[in-house]
Amino acid sequence: MKANKAQLDSALKAPAATRFFLFYGPDEAGSRALAKRIGAVMGADAERIDIAGTELKADPARLADEAAAISLFGGARYIIVEPAGEESLAAVEALAEAATAGNPVALVAGALRPTSKLLKLALAEKGAIAFASYAPEGRDADRLVAEMAKAEGLDARPDVARRIADGAGGNRALMAQEIAKLALYLDAAPDRPKPLDHDAIDAVGVGSESGDLGRMVDSVMDGDAATLRAEFNRLASEGIEGIPLVRALLRRTSLLARLRAEVEKGQAPGAVMASQGKAIFWKEKDRVAGQLVRWRSDLLAKATSRLVEAERLAKASGSPGSVAVDEELFAICRQAARLR
């Protein structure tokens, strides 16, 4: 069945009561995090069985056998199938029809089409849980960063959490990577918590030379096509493309739209910027101030519409994905160049 977050949280407290979990959607890191929660509930001594979907295609009976098997060590066990796709269908059907199971099974898939037979099976099976993972955004992203930081022994203020979320562009895996790096830098741990501030991010985090989406965002909004092309290449080499880029731009256009509304009511741009205090990171203020002067509300609305459409295309099955995103960002960049 298709589960909401409350239903999923309840099921994950006793995962053995569910025949199988299907975690799918564009946020694969989020799906992996959900599968990891099963392991946490089962305990550190539980035996984890990892199976690839291609292995199940060759041996469809294996999944049901593993789900019913007793651990060699006599303890708990659970099964993770990743990546899971249509090649796993026969094995999952056998699992659903099995008389007994007992060991939790989680299938981690990427984005699945509505016509996917695997997805249809999970939605129709009463003993199954299907849950779609999407990249966190807005306050949800900020809250997630704060929670992840706390788990690493870091106390992140709201403005610091927002900066990390912005820099990661909603990419959960990148958030986790940056937070782990910051915890190591500050020698933080749950039993020796440390405050996380902008100085640490400047040194090694998403605001440093090697990591963030800030240069990409500014190159788009400032109309710098050459830098944008270089940023696409750099980010792609780090596995960052598509939706995270859109989310980072959307946050900037949303910020500018809110500030521009005040300017068009008669306030001076400088006064509007000053009223934001620490809500805008000090290193970004000059860039944002320049963009605030150039970008009118109607143009920001058009840019936001293009970004929303780009995200829709990136999520659509059979779409050009990140290619479509790159094209839309270049289009916005060209508009910005005309405003200079």
TrEMBL record:
MF terms (GO), sorted A to Z: DNA binding; DNA-directed DNA polymerase activity
Family: Belongs to the DNA polymerase HolA subunit family.
Keywords in alphabetical order: DNA replication, DNA-directed DNA polymerase, Nucleotidyltransferase, Transferase
NCBIfam families: holA
An example Gene Ontology CC term for this record: DNA polymerase III complex
EC number, UniProt record: 2.7.7.7
GO biological process: DNA-templated DNA replication
Superkingdom in the source lineage: Bacteria
Protein name: DNA-directed DNA polymerase
Reaction(s) catalysed (UniProt annotation): DNA(n) + a 2'-deoxyribonucleoside 5'-triphosphate = DNA(n+1) + diphosphate
